[in-house]
Amino acid sequence: MDTTTMFDPELLGLPLYDDQHRRFAREIGMWCDGYGEVWETARRAHPDEAGRRLVELLGEDGWLAGLDPAAGPHELPTDTRALCLAREALAYTEDLADFAYSIQSLAATPLIRFGDEEQRRRHLPGMAKGLLVGAFAVSEREAGSEVAAVGLTARRTGQGYVLDGSKAWIAHATIADLFVVIARTGEGPGPLGLTAFLVPADTSGVRVEPLDALAPRSFGHLVLEGCRVPPEAVLGRPGKGFVIALDLLQRFRMTVAAAALGFARRAFDEALAHTGERRAYGGTLFDLQLVKASLADMEIRLQASALLTARAAWECDRGSRGFARHSDIAKVHATEAAQLTVDAAVQLAGAAGVVRDGVPERLYRQIRSLRIYEGSTDVLRLAVAGSLDARRADRVRAARSPEEAR
Fold first, then answer.
1. What is the pTM of this model?
2. Where in the chain is the domain with CATH 1.20.140.10?
3. What CATH architecture does domain 243-399 belong to?
């Protein structure tokens, strides 16, 4: 695999990135390229075995070091742009590696941003070394993407809290050592009554029901029955669970866009190579105008997705208050565009594209879930539309005369 194809060098050359990011992209690309046998072994292993081993590998080789800020300064960047570049390279290379990296980062981020000193000291070093696997549990069967509708309850007692209920479709549920759980404590209605908890997997009353996903990976439902946790299990403070969940999802949606970009770029490269080599009608498939048009559409979608993702990550890193809108836009466009690109690559591959465990077929299974994770496309379109309402209202107010405005 040519690591130079994982990223667009012209895009990396834009002022949205600096030299540290360009060095990061080069090093993560070389690292991915050097573990071909590991990726092959992971695909053949049980998803639980593969998931835990890949988290360990990422920790051993330092790619999770940024999850422990107290460990000191790092040679490579650990900001959102670096997170997106890592997901793009890992998704291009191997879906399971991207999954391991992203879920470990997803679970650690609430601790980094909202945990107290003792919580960070207890959990983050192990997560950064890949020795403690984390999972973030917010989704429920009846709530889906509506965080404010979470129903799992946490009842306060003299010794702490008792959690009862279930979470659905939790990534790394079957291998996690620590869950970040959003539960309803009732400080207020809807989003005001949610609290985040740190729940070790070996806590009495914790049970996991494994699931078989379309693309094999560690996945399952989390059931909590009379699960008792101490007061210090609260992450942040009581009633802040919605803020923690929303902050996390807004930051990670753009990273899902980056993973989609990695899948799409791999599909495009496979299609470009195949059509250039496949003999047909006295030439190659690439010589056919319809094939060229399909490849051109892929390239256009790739360029747009890459720019939107880079813009969202840059906005987040510079502390823009409006970064969430850019994150939503990037995720919607990149995941939808990647689905189209992967589908087109399968079509261009012909019968070979639907043979199980071929690259096009694997990408076809892997890309579908990204249109749902961290907020489905339909929900995020509504969020983007909501931001347009606010902008429209601002323009109406700005257009009024001073007398009318008063």
1. 0.94
2. 243-399
3. Up-down Bundle (1.20)
HSE, side-chain direction, 13 A CA sphere, residue 237: 2
CA distances from 157 to 48, 163, 224 (A): 35, 11, 16
Q: Please state which CATH number belongs to domain 135-237.
A: 2.40.110.10
The Cβ of residue 292 has, within 10 Å, a number of other Cβ atoms equal to 13
Q: Residues 253-286: pLDDT tens digits? A: 999 999 999 999 999 999 999 999 999 899 999 9
Closest to 39 in 3D by CA, of 115, 99, 95, 79: 95
Buried/exposed code over 12-22 (b: 16+ C-beta within 10 A; e: otherwise): beeebbeeebe
The CATH class of 3-132 is: mainly alpha
Alpha carbon of residue 404 to chain centroid: 46
Q: Residue 189 is encoded by which pair of tokens?
A: 């209605």
Phi, psi (deg, nearest 5) at residue 54: -70, -35
**What is the rounded CA–CA span in Å between residue 40 and residue 19?**
32
Positions of the chain with pLDDT lower than 70, given as ranges: 1-4, 145, 401-406
DSSP string of 29-45? HHHHHTTHHHHHHHHHS
Count Cβ atoms within 10 A of the Cβ of residue 312 and give its class: 0-12 exposed, 13-18 middle, 19 or more buried: buried
What pLDDT score does 388 carry? 87
Task: Give the Cα separation of 9 and 254 in Å (integer).
Answer: 20
What does the pLDDT read at residue 402? 60
Structural tokens at position 79:
């900001």
Lookup: tokens for 115: 């945990």
Active site residues: 374
Question: Residue 219 region, left (φ>0) first, then alpha (ψ -120 to 50), else beta?
Answer: beta
- Write out the two tokens for 152: 């799992």
